[in-house]
Design a protein that fits this description.
CATH superfamily of the largest domain: Lrp/AsnC effector binding domain/regulation of amino acid metabolism (RAM) domain
CATH topology of the largest domain: Alpha-Beta Plaits
Radius of gyration: 20 Å
Order of helices and strands: HHHEHEEHE
Number of domains: 2
Strand content: 15-25%
Helix content: 25-40%
Largest sheet: 4 strands, antiparallel
CATH architecture of the largest domain: 2-Layer Sandwich
Shape: elongated
CATH class of the largest domain: Alpha Beta
Distance between the termini: 12 Å
Length: about 150
């Protein structure tokens, strides 16, 4: 990737719907080579997908929780089984394997504390091999970015 590719990525991260013609004008290339660069970035997996980012409150999501999870056993099979289980739960937005005191951290988005409590009882508690979990309620989002900082050099 060169400087122009990085510029394209920064532009698309801010607005994935921007017409190629406008991207071309911003980076100083014509339409065709700009289009080709975007296609290559998509084909090589640098651009994984283009998505719509919703306002959570406007769709009823008012509670975010980071839940730290410790498994009873950490064998490869138990780790894979846990990961397979949490991948199927739609309220879970992120799953991170951690070093340190906890094995995983999950980010849960839901409507309210009652719904989260039900989520824990019916979904988290039903996953085999969970030893402990600790919930951290998000009080406010100070910064909520989806774009990676990419220096264009």
């Amino acid at each position: 990737m060169d400087k122009l590719d990085l510029k394209i990525l920064n532009i698309l991260q801010r607005n994935s719907n921007i017409p190629v013609k406008e991207i071309a004008a911003q980076i100083g290339l014509s339409y065709s080579p700009t289009y080709e660069r975007i296609r290559v970035l998509e084909d090589t997996g640098v651009i994984k997908s283009r998505v719509v980012i919703l306002d959570p409150k406007k769709v009823g999501i008012k509670l975010f929780v980071y839940c730290n999870i410790t498994l009873k056993e950490q064998s490869i099979q138990f780790l894979k089984d846990f990961e397979k289980s949490v991948m199927q739960i739609p309220e879970i937005m992120e799953v991170s394997s951690l070093s340190g005191s906890y094995d995983y951290m999950i980010k849960v988005a839901t409507t309210d504390i009652e719904t989260y409590n039900d989520f824990v009882i019916t979904k988290i508690a039903s996953i085999p091999n969970i030893g402990q979990y600790h919930s951290n309620i998000v009080m406010s989002m100070v910064k909520d970015e989806t774009a990676y900082f990419i220096e264009e050099e």
